[in-house]
Design brief:
It is a single chain. It is built from eight helices and two strands, in the order αααβααααβα. The chain is mainly alpha-helical. The chain has one domain (6-212). It has a two-stranded antiparallel sheet with strand order 1-2. The protein is globular, with a radius of gyration of 17 Å. Keywords: Membrane, Transmembrane, Transmembrane helix.
C-alpha cells in the first residue's frame, strides 16, 4: 500500500511528469494522464475519510472555475483548445498537497512572502506587463490577513506559481496577452494566479463545515 509519507511525493510527480506526458506523449498522452489523475483522485478520496466532502467540493468548484475562466471568459487556453479531463482532479491533487504541507510552512514565511509577492506584482503592473495582477494580489492579501487559513493560502500561492511556471513553459496552456473584455495586459502566467486557490479553499471548506454541522 502507498504510505501517507509517499503520497505527497507522488502528487508532485503526477503533476510534474503528467504535464510532460500531456505535452509530449503523442495522441494518447492526454488520455493516459487523465486516466491516471482520476484514479489518483479516487485514491485520495478513499484515504481522506474525514475530508471527502472538502475534496469533492474542490472538484466541483474547480471544474466550474475552469469552465468560466477558460472556456467562457477566455483568460487562458489549453493547447488543444479543450478542457483536459485531468485538469479538475489535478486541481484537487494540488489542493490536497497544500493541505499536507501548510502546517510545515514557517510562520516567518507566512508573514514575509505575501509582501514580497506584492512587490513583484506591483513591479509587473507598473511595467505594463500584468494589469490583472493587482486585483489578484489584493484578493490574496485579504485572504491571508482575514481568512481562517493564512498558512494554507501562502502554501497554495507558492504551489500554484510553481505549477503555472512549469505548465506554461512546457506549453500545456497559455494565458492570453490581454484580459478579454477589459483589455488589460496579462502575464503568462500571472504571478498572483494562486489567489484563485484562496477562493477555492474558502468555498470548499465552507462545504466541509456545513456538512460537519450537526442538524438542528
Amino acid at each position: 500500500m502507498i504510505s501517507l509519507i509517499s503520497l505527497p511525493l507522488l502528487v508532485v510527480l503526477t503533476i510534474a511528469l503528467g504535464l510532460v506526458a500531456d505535452r509530449h506523449g503523442g495522441d494518447w498522452g492526454q488520455a493516459l494522464v487523465s486516466l491516471w489523475t482520476w484514479a489518483f483522485f479516487a485514491l485520495l478520496l478513499y484515504r481522506s475519510e474525514g475530508g471527502r466532502w472538502r475534496l469533492l467540493a474542490c472538484l466541483c468548484i474547480a471544474t466550474a472555475g475552469e469552465v468560466v475562466l477558460s472556456l467562457v471568459w477566455g483568460l487562458y487556453d489549453y493547447r488543444l483548445g479543450n478542457l483536459p479531463l485531468f485538469v479538475p482532479p489535478g486541481h484537487v491533487l494540488l489542493y490536497w498537497l497544500g493541505l499536507q504541507l501548510a502546517e510545515r510552512l514557517p510562520l516567518a514565511a507566512v508573514k514575509t512572502l505575501p509582501w514580497l509577492a506584492l512587490v513583484a506584482v506591483s513591479m509587473q503592473a507598473l511595467a505594463g506587463i500584468d494589469g490583472l495582477g493587482p486585483v489578484l494580489i489584493a484578493l490574496f492579501l485579504v485572504c491571508v490577513r482575514w481568512g481562517p487559513a493564512p498558512r494554507l493560502y501562502v502554501t497554495m500561492f507558492l504551489l500554484a506559481l510553481a505549477m503555472e511556471l512549469w505548465g506554461t513553459w512546457l506549453g500545456n496552456w497559455a494565458w492570453r496577452s490581454q484580459v478579454p473584455g477589459l483589455g488589460w495586459p496579462l502575464a503568462n502566467p500571472p504571478l498572483a494566479a494562486g489567489a484563485f486557490y484562496c477562493v477555492l479553499d474558502l468555498l470548499s471548506d465552507s462545504v466541509r463545515r456545513r456538512r460537519n454541522c450537526p442538524a438542528a
